[in-house]
Amino acid sequence: MSNSIKLAILGLGTVGTGVINLINDNLNELKRRSGRDIIITEVGTRRQRDDIDTNIMQNSDLMAIAASDNVDIVIEVIGGTTLAKDVIMQAIKNGKHVVTANKALLAEHGNEIFAFAEENNVHVAYEAAVAGGIPIIKVMREALAANKIDWLAGIINGTGNFIMTEMRDKGRPFADVLSEAQELGYAEADPTFDVEGIDAAHKLALLASIAFGIPLQFDKVYCEGITGITLQDVNYAEELGYRIKHLGFAVRRDSENDGDAGVELRVHPTLIPQDALLANVNGVKNAVLVNSHPLGQTLYCGDGAGAGATASAVMADVMDLVRVLGSKDRDDQSNTGHHVPHLAFIPEQLSDTPILRADQMVTGYYLRVHAYDSPGVLADITRILSDAGINIDAILQKPAHKVGQVPVIILTLPVVESQMNLAIEKIEKLETITDKVVRIRLDELA
Amino acid sequence: MSNSIKLAILGLGTVGTGVINLINDNLNELKRRSGRDIIITEVGTRRQRDDIDTNIMQNSDLMAIAASDNVDIVIEVIGGTTLAKDVIMQAIKNGKHVVTANKALLAEHGNEIFAFAEENNVHVAYEAAVAGGIPIIKVMREALAANKIDWLAGIINGTGNFIMTEMRDKGRPFADVLSEAQELGYAEADPTFDVEGIDAAHKLALLASIAFGIPLQFDKVYCEGITGITLQDVNYAEELGYRIKHLGFAVRRDSENDGDAGVELRVHPTLIPQDALLANVNGVKNAVLVNSHPLGQTLYCGDGAGAGATASAVMADVMDLVRVLGSKDRDDQSNTGHHVPHLAFIPEQLSDTPILRADQMVTGYYLRVHAYDSPGVLADITRILSDAGINIDAILQKPAHKVGQVPVIILTLPVVESQMNLAIEKIEKLETITDKVVRIRLDELA
After folding, report:
1. How does B272-307 read in b/e, with b if 16+ C-beta sit within 10 Å?
2. Which residue range(s) make up the domain with A171?
């Protein structure tokens, strides 16, 4: 068994159990592909489990497992950012490679963790941390390695996508669908991380770093959730040929032609064209669209969560590490130089490209303005937009739904947010305007 | 410059020029990611070119380049299966790694080439050979390495997809769209390889091998092109909620429940549900849908051809090989054990799973039957199908388009082809039937 790879799984929740099941189900495939025996030697679990193979040592002391001589690779699937960090740092210190699905931990402490891993000549692999079973980390770090990535747009939170899909398909309001998502187990009892976009922001921070070669900067991600999206806006968007999806965007702005140079990191509801493939990724599915030079647009779609999808990503990382740990012919355990850099670019080449503030960002807009149905109102609004240099792409004036009040829907071409802020401030000061202007970003994905 | 990686590009057509342009455009990204200088030292071209950097040696003797001491990696983009094979074998013999976009060569001679590469401790990388810029080879060999792949379905010929898209969108007949595709440069003057499905069959042979761990068996791929698809069938399919795409399928049949055990390798027009993402991949785009356990379905979509997309895939392979050739810290030039096996599974683990004959394959069917409009005809047809154990999923009887003749459209559930052959033979013998039965395969992609 000197030829075997010894795994420890820390945490036996959905994902940990999924990894055990995958190894049991696909033992033969794993061996046929890697030429090695991949075995679980230890699992970290708070309480003793009687459904685990008796050859596997169960231990509630995760720090001990992370230092065990009987482990080559530590799989961290306990979640959270405290104990998870401690055990990962412990594993690294003890020369173990680490596989983790922990997006929150990496988004917030990844720079420190990756630097410590490099110091100790081990790898921290994290395919499962973003978009579940979709191999977007491998694709961006390796398959697109020769491209200059211009931007990416991703449906990277399955709960949010389920809610947006149901609202559109069934005409059900947000709160209603959220309750169902909670019943189905798609959303947590406290859904804040999902519906406020925080989970998506964690993943976006990771994607942006490997896209552009910048340090992780979760704290600079502009983050807007879906709690404010109404059925009314969902329907107006459809009427205009668009669909509202909750998306994460990482955009590189090289020139100052249309705003300041730097990187936009943003997570927000977005109108995208109905006929874009991304607009047709429904339910809990995730998808990431990457635009790069010279490749152009490529799309990656699949399950973003669940035991099977996450276990697939975790074990793909293990299979990569098996090669790092030496092939069947070799036993060079320290061969880490050949691996892909943690953030796709070699550490000394990470750049300090500035992250743009929200008011510097450039996007199109969907505006819903409520006005008294008086003759000059549309002229007033369009004049304000035009004075601010904002180009209108479409206007939809709906019949009055309250007495004397009409909703006016306006789609604009891309504009710097600070300009839009000023224009909206002026519009809201018009005497004919009855409510706050509702605004949702819009992207043609072109 | 001992830290540099020296490339030779054999062939300066669209792809070779694309690779040169990519390296020029993205020099900084390549360096930032790999930590190495990636330089072209030699190019193989029949006639001297004056638009090539003077530091690059031009040589019409490709065999000499493939043996040159000044080259680490040979990029073969001349195409064809004769000279291309000679130069690749020459490069391998001389210890060079090879990157090729040559699907025909690999589909037909890959077993021999890969074995020779393993003997000589080098790699032959071929991401660009299938689906252009979509990293489907890397995804299946590495990202899905822990999964058991059940089946895959791919739009892997852009010309064919363009023709099918135009026929549906514009209601134009096959011959008409083919002429346009030729004018646009999407199709060759002799379009046989594209429209008869041979190009797709080459790619499918490669995909099937890395999906299931079987040797390349291009000669066993069942191959049907799109030349027989009429507008009439395109429209009936749409009316029934389906869309006709030209797809390559690789399907593993483990049990004998619904036919013989083995692998189906087939390329043919297929009705798939209109709302499947794959049905909405239009124009010259390619896409591959992979169903694996435990991951489930994932989809990969992008440009399947063109200079930029192909160069992206070629250079992704180069970036992988850069790691094999040693990192910036190491200079272990022989470190090949750490690499992914050519056909995803280690050579001694390739299996001899039988490839099923066409009459053993199991698919659903679209049938178009032309009958005299007489009372018992539908009863006769459905009785024949039912006697053969074929389940009908939908029937559409259209108004007569010739005097007294009605087209009847029948969709069936999956059935072994031999059964369908017998049933169709019987249907065609009915006195009320006026023409040959038209049949197109159907797959729910479920």
Report:
1. bbeebbbbbbbebbbbbbbbbbbbbbbbbbbbbbbb
2. 136-303
Query: What is the number of domains present in chain B?
Result: 3
In this prediction, residue B330 carries a pLDDT of 38
Amino acid B327: pLDDT: 44
Phi and psi dihedrals of B298, rounded to 5?
-130, 150
Tell me the pairing of strands B73-76 and B5-10. Answer: parallel
Question: What SS3 class is residue B233?
Answer: helix
Please say if the pLDDT value at position A121 is more than 50.
yes
pLDDT in tens, A183-239: 988 888 889 999 999 999 999 999 999 999 999 999 999 999 999 999 999 999 999
| Helix, strand, or coil (residue A186) | coil
Residue of B nearest to A340 (CA): B323
Taking the CB of residue B12, how many other CB atoms lie within 10 A of it? 21
Structure-block tokens of residue B62: 């490709």
Residues B287 and B344 in one domain: no
- Phi and psi at B6, nearest 5°, equal -105, 120
DSSP for B86-145, written as a single string: HHHHHHHHTT-EEEE--HHHHHHHHHHHHHHHHHTT--EE-GGGSSTTS-HHHIIIIITT
Residues of B in contact with A138 (CB under 8 A): 138-139, 142-143
User: Taking 70 as the threshold, does the pLDDT of residue B233 lie above it?
Assistant: yes
Give the type of residue at B151: W
The verdict on residue A428 lying in a domain is yes
B327 at the A interface (CB within 8 A)? Answer: yes
Which residue of chain B comes nearest to A36, CA vs CA?
B346
Q: Which two tokens stand for residue B391?
A: 């389940």
Residues of chain B positioned with their CB less than 8 A from the CB of A277: 277, 280-281, 301
Which amino acid does the sequence have at A65?
Answer: I
Query: Angle A284-A285-A288 (CA atoms, 0-180°, nearest 5)?
Result: 135
Q: Which residue is listed with tokens 């989970």?
A: A199
Among residues B196, B74, B201, the alpha carbon closest in space to that of B125 is found at B74
- Whether residue A398 lies in the annotated active site: no
Whether residue B354 is contained in a domain is answered as no
User: Residue type for A241, please?
Assistant: G
Beta strands in A274-332 (DSSP E): 285-293, 296-303
Q: What is the pLDDT of residues A307-364, one digit of tens each?
A: 999 999 999 999 999 987 764 343 444 444 567 899 999 999 999 999 999 999 999 9
**Which residues from chain A sit within 8 angstroms of residue B329, using beta carbons?**
337
Please tell me whether residues B75 and B52 are part of one structural domain: yes
Task: Say if strands A148-155 and B438-442 run parallel, antiparallel, or are unpaired.
Answer: unpaired
| Residues constituting chain A | 446
Q: Check residue A373 and give its pLDDT.
A: 77
pLDDT for A336 equals 45
| Contact with chain A for residue B68, Cβ under 8 A | no
Whether B339 sits inside 8 A of A349 (CB atoms) is no
Q: Which two tokens stand for residue B156?
A: 């892997």
The verdict on B315 touching A (C-beta cutoff 8 Å) is: yes
Nearest CB to A302; choose among B29, B213, B299: B299
Beta bridge partners of B252: B263
Q: Report yes or no: B34 at the A interface, CB cutoff 8 Å.
A: yes
Beta-sheet strands, E only, within A373-403: 392-397
Q: Are residues A21 and A33 in the same domain?
A: yes
- Bridge partners, residue B28, by sequence: none
Whether chain A has a CB inside 8 Å of the CB on B146: the answer is yes
Rounded Cα gap, residues B252 and B151, in angstroms: 6
Q: Give the separation between CA B71 and CA B89, rounded to whole angstroms.
A: 15
Both B105 and B185 in one domain: the answer is no
Report the C-alpha dihedral over residues A101, A105, A107, A108, rounded to 10 degrees.
Answer: 180
Structure tokens at B298: 């994932």
Q: What is the CATH number of the domain that holds B218?
A: 3.30.360.10
Q: Sorting pLDDT into bands at 50, 70 and 90, what band is B399? A: confident
Place of tokens 């340090």: A215
